[in-house]
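Model it.
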Amino acid sequence: MSLLADTGVLNGAVPELPAGCIRDPSAAVVTTTIASLMGPATPAVHAADSLVAAARKLRAHATDAVLVHGDDRAFIGMITRGDIIDQCVANGGDPAQVSAGSLVSTPTPYATPEQDAGSSVIETILRHRTSFLPVVDDGQLVGIITLDSLAVHLVDGMDDPDIDGPPEVLPELWPAAEPSPREEMRRRA
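Modeled.
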């Protein structure tokens, strides 16, 4: 059954929602929020930390970007490996003497904890060519949302026993001769 059917929405009942979910008041739709999927705000460096410290975080976490925060975890932005190479090393700068905060020049996209964990977040991550987005609440860095956590959430959401294959709207894209894996499992049971 679908989440809507499982929670009684189809019968007109007003169900309790799982933790991290919100109901859109304009429709009977349940959505998952960023807060329920986000992880800790790592890798992150203080704006005063050197680019050497930032590069070490990038290497230790095997990632392409590091978050930059100020005092009290105030979010400043994000820098990438490319920023360190292009804006410091290639210009003859000394990464031990250049602060991470000095490389944050463009506004960094971010998500908020109450934001819907939908396709717009994935699109933003992909458009900015990184594997995550910072999560910022009231100016404070509170976590990150990764492309991996969003993908797992979306795939888990597809695990609906009532779905045997693609929508009937596009039957020409799904070979009718081959049963879906789910249909095959039902036949064997």
